[in-house]
Amino acid sequence: MTIFFTGLSGSGKSTIANVLLTKFLETGGRPVTLLDGDLVRKHLSSELGFSKEHRDINIRRIGYVASEITKDGGIAICAPIAPYDATRKHVRQMIEPYGGFVLVHIATSVEVCEQRDRKGLYAKARAGILKEFTGISDPYEAPADADVVINTGELSAEEAAQEIILHLEREGFIGTARGVGLRPVASETMQRLKPVRHGSAD
Ligand code: ADX
Fold it and tell me: Would you state the CATH architecture of domain 2-198?
């Protein structure tokens, strides 16, 4: 399974992805790999810039690694900006033959990201020192096909990670807290077959 985050720089992707990683590691089970935007840029895509072509190469590399992890039964958590809709869809198509692909949009507005400006990059982009900066001088195509949308204005990173876990449980990608990891169809069938009881507690 691949959990693919998308959102602006400073939207909270990395923070939430790291909380999610910790939760998976605590639960144990399948191996988990985090492909963080900044770390991929450092180790896997250090020669690339931020033109559309280079961003697309970067995202397709992440997609390829995630598809291999998914194929092997692991969990890949990816957290790049991934600003282009067609490229995200391409990655979904690369991964879905091998397992689940869950697109998580961290929908923090550019105003909020700029106001926080944790890395000081928005100020540099405004000053024209950083060119092609997503949300300022470069596009961000918000997804219409996100499986989960996180509004970080309302949720802490912990709560956001919990929302994602709940979605994964609901869709049958991971077992529930009680350890009943049924696929959605099977689970619905089970519900229908379950005898209806009145009065007595379960
Ligand atoms: S992506 O567009 O190819 O998906 P990626 O997530 O790898 O982007 O890298 C984004 C990170 O690179 C940002 O969080 C920021 O720290 C840094 N960065 C440097 N220059 C830019 C830029 N022009 N646009 C966006 N991010 C930039």
Answer: 3-Layer(aba) Sandwich (3.40)
